[in-house]
Amino acid sequence: MIDLPFLTDTFLKLAAALPVTLGLFFSSFVLGGLLALVILAMRMSRNPLLSGFARGYILVFRGSPLMIQLFLIYYGLGQFELIRHSFVWPVLREPFFCAVVSLALCTASYTAEIFRGGLLAIPAGQIEAGMACGMSRWLLLRRIVAPIMLRYALPAYSTEAILLVKSTALASLVTVWDVTGVAQQIIQRTYRTMEVFICAALIYLILNFIIVQIYAWIERRLTPRLRAVEAATAQPVPHAIAGEKHD
Amino acid sequence: MANLGFGENGWGGLILSATLTTLLLSLAAMMVGAAVGSGVAAAKLSSRRPVRWLGDGYSVIFRGIPELLIIYLFYFGGSGLITQIGQLFGADGFIEVPPFLIGALAIGLISASYQAEVFRAGRLALNPGEIEAAQAIGMPKPRILQRIVVPQVVRYALPGLSNVWQMSLKDSALISVTGIVELMRASQVAAGSTRQYFTFYLIGGTCYLVLTVLSNTAFKKAEKRLGRAHRSRTAAHS
């Protein structure tokens, strides 16, 4: 009943497309994260023009499907002569880069809101304590605000990373041969939907499992309480040294 | 300029009816999701370990695999499976499942995995004392469910359900790959025929935006209404 050669053959073909999926994920994750910080800064700004723009950006990109955003960029922008003759055209002509751009734009809107949640959760006393010590704005941001914000934002941020992995599948709709694209091609050629689906699903589940593990590791690193326990059980280090890292 | 009229050459009628299809599709998916999702939530809260595993397994699969892949499974696999079942009962030939049904089922089962989390959180937020009190006065189990559990879980779950609804609304765009003419597909058709891609995708996107903003307002209203009793009590305290 189980056709093992077909399964392994399909799995290998799909695994060969994994670099494309990973490339889509990593580039849009990094770009989206950076863009999210810019939008977060605008959203928190006192300038009503900047914060209004950030609000609008978040509303539009969270309120419409990624698929239509992707098609708007891939098919839509080509409608304009101006863009076809500009310097961005070599980038926007490539389906891969179009997919990365739209994935990054979309994930940035979600990530900005997640970061904002983390930022608002920082106890005011911690920032005041930093200021009372005479920390400069930059030092305060680096030592207090950024690590605590990241720590609070991590659980939601890991969910967003998994949603992003799932979103990369949409790139197959603009002829990028990622895992889903190849899977769809094999299904149409062989009509063995279930077997191909299981292979592709397995790849995505493993990928998501790895991402969850990485986030759990970062969360342990950023929580001094948990880090101290871990170090103490691993080797008998004095508590004060295990809990604080002097760098 | 794009012709958005409702006449012979206008695209307005198509887009408007497609918006309605999107809305119906998402509503059907939401209902499938509520039915399956509450079952999954119950499984996750079960005291029996194998049942809990089933619930957790459902979440892992439907929340970890790309929506598009699940839609392909239902689209390519669904009709084949139904045909096979039909053949068992003596029907011959290929039985095609209506695409609307496939779409509602695929999006619904994805929605169920997210709704299950929302319902589970709502159930955990319930004060156990209330159920004990109902048991103490001798309420039978179905009535406890009907009078104590469901009304409160719905209230607790409403903000989360609002998020899931928006997600399902946006996921419904993916159903366009099966050929059913909902908003995404209608935008594609209009864009392709007129070669005005940007214009029509922008119009389609705006329609989605209007749907999400309107439904957000509706959910806010519902939250206010369901929270009325609760709010007046806290207001009295403060």
Can you describe this structure?
Chain A is mostly helical and about 250 residues long. Chain A has 2 domains: about 1-15 and about 180-245, no CATH class; about 20-175, MetI-like (MetI-like fold, Orthogonal Bundle), CATH 1.10.3720. Chain A is built from 13 helices and no strands. The longest helix of chain A is centred in the middle third of the chain and has 31 residues, at about 135-165. Chain A is flat, with a radius of gyration of 22 Å. Residues about 235-245 of chain A have low confidence and may be disordered. Chain B is mainly α. Helix content of chain B is about 80%, strand content about 0%. Chain B has 9 helices and no strands. In chain B, helix 2 packs across helix 4. Chain B is globular, with a radius of gyration of 22 Å. The N and C termini of chain B lie far apart (about 60 Å). Chains A and B meet through helix 3, helix 4, helix 9, helix 10 and helix 11 of A and helix 2, helix 3, helix 6, helix 7 and helix 8 of B.
Question: Secondary structure elements and their pairing?
Answer:
The complex is a heterodimer of chains A (247) and B (238).
Chain A: H1 4-16, H2 18-43, H3 48-63, H4 66-76, H5 81-84, H6 89-92, H7 95-120, H8 124-132, H9 137-167, H10 179-190, H11 193-222, H12 224-234, H13 239-243
Helix pairs in contact in A: 1-10, 1-11, 2-3, 2-7, 3-7, 4-7, 7-9, 8-9, 9-11, 10-11
Chain B: H1 12-44, H2 49-64, H3 67-88, H4 99-124, H5 128-136, H6 141-171, H7 183-194, H8 197-226, H9 228-237
Short description:
The complex is a heterodimer of chains A (247) and B (238). Chain A has 247 residues and is mainly alpha-helical.
Q: What key attributes describe this structure?
A:
heterodimer, A: 247 residues, mainly alpha, 2 domains, 0% strand, B: 238 residues, MetI-like fold, 9 helices, 79% helix, globular
